[in-house]
């Protein structure tokens, strides 16, 4: 077996790498989620201030047995590397995953990282799967769990009408791919607050510090990837951004849409602002649909208010996503 390094500059190699990963996801997940080919290619081939993305393939001649996808964080969380393993079904239980993991661990040590971090999907009720069993067998410890919920779109307009509520004292604003200049500072502050506020269990994570420059870089990357982003915010009477939500997808995977962040500042909670921003954002998202799609979202079970909002909309649980760590 040979080891192939994948950095996105060799298109043919990258496509073989990506195809194996995507095939595994589609085979094993009833509701697969993740980047499409062009989205991933931008991450691998580009230079980014906050992250470097590359991969490893284990091949036998022209046959790809398994891959490791690696996210190296460059601003916060430089103590860890995120790793995702995918092994072709016919080559499992033959040591492919174990060999890939040890290659990754050695690379991480060489780059001064002390922690491997990864995600395993499991049953919606038990959280267990072959992936979680592999993690336990290879010294990983489960540190956090999110509930994966989905809903089929489009939702009937009548359903959205019944759920929509005006919240006195707040102005609802919307924008698409590019944030208005006047909201950059305020939105950067809200994004940073969200990364502190969101439940992360016992994960050894540093909160992301957002700046206007970082927002603009993320926007440019998203546009290059062919991704869309719909943003709705609630502005309080004092002019501060009280709540926001973002949803979107990509042209390459029109059947997969994502509910990204929804955040309400602590001092504005209890006023149904979560629903107040979600409904108009859903309207914006659905207005561009030309085929049925599945909207995905993830929340920690401890985040009961947001899960309740999602359930009220009609989201249902389909899996648990658990985060694992292994000290090197």
TrEMBL record:
InterPro entries: Acyl_CoA_acyltransferase, GNAT_dom
Residues of the N-acetyltransferase domain: 1-158
Listed Pfam families: Acetyltransf_1
Protein name: Acetyltransferase (GNAT) family protein
The organism of origin for this protein: Kribbella orskensis
């Amino acid at each position: 077996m040979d080891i192939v390094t994948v950095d996105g500059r060799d298109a043919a190699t990258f496509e073989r790498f990506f195809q194996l990963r995507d095939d595994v996801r589609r085979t094993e997940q009833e509701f697969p989620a993740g980047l499409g080919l062009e989205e991933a290619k931008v991450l691998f081939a580009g230079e980014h201030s906050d992250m470097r993305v590359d991969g490893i393939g284990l091949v036998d001649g022209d046959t790809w047995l398994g891959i490791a996808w690696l996210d190296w964080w460059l601003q916060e969380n430089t103590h860890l590397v995120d790793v995702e393993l995918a092994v072709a079904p016919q080559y499992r239980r033959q040591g492919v995953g174990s060999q890939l993991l040890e290659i990754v661990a050695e690379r991480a040590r060489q780059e001064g990282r002390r922690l491997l971090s990864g995600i395993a999907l499991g049953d919606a009720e038990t959280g267990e799967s072959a992936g979680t069993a592999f993690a336990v067998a290879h010294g990983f410890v489960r540190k956090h769990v999110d509930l994966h919920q989905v809903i089929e779109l489009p939702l009937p307009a009548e359903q959205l009408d019944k759920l929509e509520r005006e919240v006195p004292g707040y102005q609802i604003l919307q924008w698409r791919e590019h944030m208005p200049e006047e909201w950059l500072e305020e939105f950067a502050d809200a994004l940073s607050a969200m990364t502190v506020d969101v439940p992360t269990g016992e994960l050894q994570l540093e909160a992301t510090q957002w700046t206007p420059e970082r927002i603009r870089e993320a926007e440019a990357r998203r546009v290059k990837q062919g991704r869309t982003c719909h943003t709705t915010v609630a502005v309080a009477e004092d002019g501060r951004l009280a709540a926001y939500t973002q949803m979107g997808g990509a042209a390459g995977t029109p059947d997969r849409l994502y509910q990204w962040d929804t955040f309400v500042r602590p001092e504005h909670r209890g006023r149904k602002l979560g629903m107040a921003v979600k409904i108009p954002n859903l309207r914006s998202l659905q207005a561009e649909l030309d085929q049925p799609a599945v909207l995905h979202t993830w929340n920690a079970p401890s985040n009961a208010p947001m899960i309740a909002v999602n359930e009220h909309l009609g989201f249902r649980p389909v899996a648990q996503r658990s985060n694992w760590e292994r000290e090197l």
